[in-house]
Amino acid sequence: MKDSGCLARAALRTDLHLACVQGPDVGVVVAPGTVGRAGDMPLSCASVARTHAVFTTREGRAFLDARPDSPPFRLRTRARWWRSARTAREMIPGARLRLGDDVFEVRARPMRLAWPGVERRGRGSLTVSSLLRGAPLVSVVVMLGFMGWRLRAAASAPRLWIGIASLVAAVACVTAIILCWRARRRRRGWDGATLSLVLAGLPDCGPSPRSVRASVWPGRATSPRQRVLLSTSSDEPGRSALGIAGLHATQCALWCAGQIAAQVGGARVWWNSASPVLLGHAGVDIHVSAGESCPHCAQGAADDRPTVHIGYASSIARLPSWCAQVCVTDDLPVAPQWWWTVTRADARDALPSRVGWDPDHARGSSGVLSVRIGMSQSGPIELDLVSDGPHALVAGCTGSGKSEALIGWLASIAHCYSPDKVRFVLIDYKGGSTFARLQALPHTHALLTDLDPGATTRALEGIAAELQRREEQLRARGFPDLATWERAHEGDPSSVPEAPARLIVAIDEFRFLAQAHPSSMEVLLRLAAQGRSLGLHLIAATQRPSGAVSAQMRANMDIRLSLRCVSAADSTDILGDARAASLPRVPGRAVLDGVGVIQLAYMDNVAEVVSRCARSWPHGGTAPLWAPELPETLTWDEVDAANGYATALTHQYPSTTPTHAGALTLGLVEGIEEHSPFVWDGGSIQIQASAHEADLASRWALALATRIASRCGYPLHVIGDGDAAGCASFLACDDLSTIDLLEGICEHGPAVLAITDAAALRASLTQALSAPQADSLWAALLGGARRAGVIIVAAYPGRFTASSATMGAFSTRLVRARDADEALHAGISPADLRTLGPGQALLARPGERTLLACIPRTACDLGAHLGHERNSWRIPSPATVSALVRNTDAPALIGPTYDAPTWDHPLPWIIIGRQEDASILTALHAYLGWAETPTISDVIPQGSWTRIARWDGHRVLAMNPTNNVIRALIQQCHASPLSVLARRWSPSCGLICEGDTLTTVQLTVGSVNT
What we know:
Blueprint: E1 16-22, E2 29-30, E3 33-35, E4 53-58, E5 61-66, E6 73-76, E7 82-85, E8 87-91, E9 96-99, E10 102-108, H1 128-133, H2 135-154, H3 158-188, H4 192-200, E11 213-216, E12 228-231, E13 241-245, H5 249-264, E14 266-271, E15 277-280, E16 284-289, E17 307-313, E18 325-328, H6 339-342, E19 344-345, E20 355-356, E21 370-376, E22 379-384, E23 392-395, H7 402-416, E24 422-428, E25 444-449, H8 453-477, H9 482-491, E26 502-508, H10 510-516, H11 521-534, E27 536-542, H12 551-556, E28 559-563, H13 568-575, E29 589-592, E30 596-602, H14 606-616, H15 636-642, E31 665-669, E32 676-679, E33 685-689, H16 694-712, E34 716-719, E35 729-731, H17 737-744, E36 751-755, H18 758-768, H19 771-788, E37 790-797, E38 812-815, H20 820-825, E39 840-844, E40 851-854, H21 878-887, E41 892-894, E42 909-912, H22 918-928, E43 936-940, E44 955-959, H23 963-972, E45 989-994, E46 997-1003
Parallel strand pairs: 13-17, 13-18, 14-16, 16-17, 20-30, 23-27, 23-28, 24-25, 24-26, 26-27, 33-37, 33-38, 34-35, 34-36, 36-37, 42-43, 42-44
Antiparallel strand pairs: 1-2, 1-10, 3-4, 4-5, 5-8, 6-7, 6-9, 9-10, 11-12, 14-15, 15-19, 21-22, 21-30, 28-29, 29-30, 31-32, 31-40, 38-39, 39-40, 41-46, 44-45, 45-46
């Protein structure tokens, strides 16, 4: 919108418009476009939606379509009753509809924009011109009388006279009705909507009259004879000042000012503001005031324009004494926001385009945190968050200077007051670009950005804890609020300790914060409600406050500062009117609610002010509001040292708090007042990280697994790339022996299983086995681990989405989510995201909130805590197997653990394969010390695998078995390892079956077949 225009001017650029004739927005005109509280012409009716309907015109017809998410409107039919509708088609001028509590009438653009003046009082009054227009009617009446006189001589019947008299009476009644209808219709056209169009059509420039002579309706327009004459002529003394008393005296006074401007061609109006507004051009001056002395006369004294004064008050007793004429009315001719739809800012104001910040005069003359923020036409403007606040709402579009104004305000407060008096918490949801220059201030406790949303949540919790602590301090000292404490300390500093510093929470782009942290809105509402008594002040800055600042929060924000806004709806949201939408494009030009248009001070060298504050008040002189940031890296020695002291917030996080002296800590968890130990809950741990952090996830898995194994005395089995010295088993992900380890570990618990790359392990299992068999093996491991006392520490690099098998298997998750997409896939709210250091991760546990934790990345020394005395079961690696095959004395090694044979007694044998395999049996008997020769009951060729059956009391040997032999043996055995399906067979290895058990056999170097 151009600076020279007003909102009502849009209705003159179309053939049809909507005029509000009844309701909270009476007098407002709406041009085609969006209709609602956030429309092109903002409405104030609470029952109207923000975007209620769309109003369009086409070929002299009006159309209205309700939005899908808004309630329907009501349309008045020709029968004068109302019906609900969502679409109104082809409404002609005169049609009426109801949106919420507002009643609108479809009107055509007037052919002539005029308002009844003093001389032309309107067609509803008895004037010479109206008598001349009624001359034909008089002649008709005279002719009828003459005809009756002539017929009197011709007819003597009384019926004739009765008929004539009835005809004359009927004509007189019809004439009176027509005249009354025309007068009423004319008066109905003299309303606020019509005046809006007249004022919008006034020229932007023109001459000033020598005097003012105008007639105005104090309330709703009725008969022209009810108007009040205002005149600045010396011939008519006592008529230049009008006083209006009533319930809506303010709106009536502005309604009268608009009527004066419409009659004289334009006016400059001073009302409730240090800067005037224009109705058309500045033809005359109109001062609207409720004070005993007019505050605007001194500002307009330099002009020669005639001046009219209008006073207003709720009752006659409160009217200013200078009111020469007094009117009492309770009418509401126009809505409160009507005034800002017909006025525009005066581009030729006396404000400079730039006001420099002066460090010598930055401090206010009075107040706790008072500083000079800018200049108005009446002089410097001072603002105090304590006395004027306690909270402030700042709005402005891009390029209006909002960020610079916010930085200048905060830097000015820091320049004038020490960190003992005020502290800052800066929340910048534009990536930190706005408040980065203030981070070095000793007053700044924290700078929070949208890059680390979890830190914002923690800060809000820290502020809440600080307010709770202040409540306890005030209660203990018997003070009702912080201001009383401050006054008591000033009066007796020796006996009353110094009060805590006031806390300013400044938020840039408050809308983005509300969208990213919807759950934190309750915290902000509570902070805003408690701020006045506890010394907390909130400054919320945003481009569009609509929808972001709730009504409850807006009620606590007494300071409302609006720089230039793009639309009238944005200005209305913060100021209640459209003044900020018509501000000139001057950076720093703003409207301060209750003051008017001001020019904010500009601080051109913020870095110098920050450095001066840092020299005056060095860092470290004030106590922190909450615990410092969690360290980015830790060692196990530091973890053990941190576990030696209790934290102040242990009751808030029961699962991360030691419950006894022997609790095993795995790191540190971030807290508000102090950081608490990360206590292991006894369950399995899952580590989720992106693919490029696979090495970090692997190191964490080994570090945590060795920590648990060394402290609990459990054997450690490792599957992956990293090795831990002293572990019972160490296998690569693609080793086939991992199948035996995963199958057998639940039968040999308790133990610790470390998997450095679960995704690679699953892929290897699927390649070695079929996909269903691999999934079944993995599900059986996760499902039986907890019952068997097996602790799994598994790293999942490159995978954040939890599978059905892992749900419930891991009681603790360490998540290295970097963005919202990864967080959502991991089941974590994006609001809990943090900027993670090298050793930090998000700690997620079922039923608990997500916390930031720091975990060491180095493996512990297992030392003597291997658990081999109690549990010596292990699966050797391929390198270990090769060494055993070369160095063992036994002719063969049995099972996945590659142990020497330990059978108690001999049994008959069945050989599947060749007769020469009998030499293996002879070697086994000799190793076991059995003197008798092996008994061979049968030798079945591998091609005759169909003869394989169950032989009780026998041992079966099958060297280098074929797939058919393997399947036949598996069918006869209830316990068979899955690894036999994936193993590569050779003449030096085979299967041994005894009863229901099927296991492998590996010949050694000293055996006959090797």
